[in-house]
Amino acid sequence: MLFQDSYSLSEADKAELNKLVSVLEISSGTTIIFAIAPESSPQHPVVRQLQESLATSDEKFTFDKFFYSQNSFHNFLYSLDDHQQRNLETGRRLVMAFGIDQLPTPRLVKEMKQLNLGREELFGRNLILILWLNNTGFLDEFRHRAPDFWDWREKIVEFETRNPLLYPYLEWLIAENSYLKMSGVMQVNRQVDIFLDQIYVSLQAQWRQQVTDTSERSQRELGMLTVRQVQSSRLKDMGFGSDDWDEPCYYEPLPTELISASVSSTKTVTQKVDLADAVRDNLYSVILGAPGAGKTTLLRYLALHFAIAKRDNLETVIVDNDAVEDNQKKELGKTVLPIFFRIADYAEKLKQQPELTLLEYLRQFYRQWEAHFQAEGEIETEVAGLLLDAMRQGKCLMLLDGLDEVFDQESRKQIVERINKFVHEFPSNKFVITSRIAGYRDVQLSSRFAEFTIEDMDSIQVERFLYRWCRTVEKAQQPDASEEQWLKKGTEQAQDILLAIQGNPGVERLTANPLLLTILALIHRNGDQLPNRRVKLYELAVQTLTEDWQLSKKLPDAPRVVLKETEVVELLAPLAYWMHEEKPSGLVTQREVEEKLAEKLAEFNDTEPESDSVRQAVGEFLRKVRETTGLFVERIPGFYGFMHLTFEEYFAARYIADKEQSEILELIQKHLNEPRWNEPLLLALGYYGSHFSAQFKKLAEKLFINLDKYQPVLQHGEIKITASNDTTIIYLKEDESGNNLNKLEFKLRDLLFAGQVIAEIEINSIVIRKKPISKLVITYLGITNQVHR
């Protein structure tokens, strides 16, 4: 068993405990005690005996447990009921705090700082605070990081009784996974602690199963299949595997020429399931999803709640907090011991030790963990041995994150073999493994694994996430505010973001992805108005998906594997422009992609596109951009496209913005009358304006010069609009003599485009902004309701 009661107190510990009880009974005002006990926890014999002794004392005490792994002590203090703690009938409040010595360094530093700065507030509460630690060495952290708080200590007590219940391991695991980790997008993040449970939204997934279909279907029935259903029924005749499918499709249905008239006898049946339910109900699960879809967050959520349930000795994992919709409890399954690690870390060790098994890797990892958390001279807790015993009994939840993060194909095959062997060795445990879709296609786990592909968030989930995220940030930044105040402020923030999203279809496309939605919320939180800064959102998203987010993961061989943002833009921008012109479906064949990229790479390297070096570089780039960024993906075997249409538009805009001014103006005029090009043109001008503000003024003057021809005057009569293939404004203007009025025409699209530019792009020049605004106002005031055909 994990929790044991066989350890009794030594005589020395009994004497130390009696002294502590005496100190607490006669103490007054706020009293701080540092208590050291190996594997300290609420179930530790010393802790339980202390509570029993104080419960029979003449003095009255009320007990609170606080876990640093799950909350900030500053927030905990504000949650205390002041009336209750000052009411003498309820007894003096005694808070036992656990796990500060298991915190990651950034959180430890912050908590120590708050203790040091907030000691006066703490001492005004008339409570007893016992900080339970695992070893005496950690007292140095208080001496150095919180010296003022350290000086106020009442007593240090030390116990030798042990209680090997893996508590430090569980508390460390909880602390590691309690908070939302924003690494990779910190350039737009104000430093706040966001608890995972407070913002977690349950995701949906497609469960795909291969079944035999012996019935015949008509061509009409086949044509009615969805894009996802088509992939299993028509790729066989094209020579593709039935499971070869990549990131979610954000374009129109596939061209009819890609749909075969014949139907395979096998088909893929998809069923929508709640992701947490899928993991609960399946012993072996592989979670597939696009970059930022929430795969790692799901594993951290599972690790967190299974560790809490194990620590609290619960039989079943029940989630009953803000992460559960409609205030209903969520059951995640029978409580087992969670073990969570990144596959990329194992891959790194495997390079140094080619014969290293997965089991031996886990032994090495947890021995290092023990060495880090135990004091010099103490008896080893043998965490690795206890975990191994639990694995042999089939009482573990194995969470393996990021199969796709092993970039080398041969290494990935080797690791998949090791994982399959490991699962075969310990088949009674529950296994959950994550991978990007693109990184999973060529190297798959055994057929015992059920495959679940994470679906995009729908509008309800997006809204739920934003309200939770904004309220949580407000609470973290304003801990002294009342609940009513931060709820009100957070709700207003969320409503502002939702309004901004609804006004921009391009932005709305990104919200289906949790990572990109988080970036969007962070940008808005930092004061940028989304309608005027769409291009900044896309720019940050590309930066995050290429360099920042990847480097923050500390992948093996990161300098070799991770693409530079400049390289991605140089190669994808011309490709995106060409696709936006020639490929309205958003799909391009692999051969076409390779030809276009080869032309560009040959130009960069001053060589021939057909050379072996260029062809090899093209293949390497395609693989990297597909597997490490997810921006440009193989949507079906042999056919590529961008993750979202939005990114195709953004990269096409970057191609335009990188041209000379004369070429930019030429391209704008070329595509101005095409609705499909409206967004790329505005993004191009937005990017140019934000990065080349001085030059943009000259560009804007040239862009709006044709408005000089349009000079409507209200007193000369009505302004009319003709509805035709090229909608025109008809207005009256005096001739040079001033005696006659001439009927003139002006293209409506030119005026509307000018209005869009000044509405969505920051233009500092009042003179430039005044021209289109004045003419838009006059046109609006003078227009009639009559439409001439």
What is the strand and helix layout of this fold?
Layout: H1 11-26, E1 31-36, H2 45-55, E2 61-67, H3 73-79, H4 82-86, E3 92-98, H5 105-117, H6 119-123, E4 128-133, H7 139-145, H8 147-151, E5 155-158, H9 167-177, H10 196-199, E6 204-212, H11 219-223, H12 227-234, E7 266-274, H13 275-281, E8 284-289, H14 295-311, E9 316-319, E10 330-334, E11 337-342, H15 343-352, H16 358-373, H17 383-392, E12 396-401, H18 409-425, E13 430-436, H19 437-440, E14 450-454, H20 459-477, H21 483-502, H22 505-510, H23 514-525, H24 534-552, H25 558-561, H26 565-582, E15 588-589, H27 590-605, H28 612-629, E16 632-636, E17 639-642, H29 645-657, H30 661-671, H31 678-691, H32 693-703, E18 719-722, E19 728-734, E20 741-747, H33 748-760, H34 766-782, E21 783-788
Parallel strand pairs: 1-4, 1-5, 2-3, 3-4, 8-13, 8-14, 11-12, 12-13, 18-21
Antiparallel strand pairs: 6-7, 6-14, 9-10, 15-17, 16-17, 18-19, 19-20
What is the approximate shape? globular
**Most strands sheet:** 7 strands, mixed
Helix proportion range = 40-55%
SS element count, helices: 34
The N- to C-terminal Cα distance equals: 84 Å
Account of the protein in words:
This protein has 789 residues and is of the alpha/beta class. The chain is built from 34 helices and 21 strands. Helix 20 packs across helix 23, helix 31 crosses helix 33 and helix 33 crosses helix 34.
Any key phrases for this structure?
about 800 residues, alpha/beta, seven-stranded mixed sheet, 34 helices, disordered N terminus
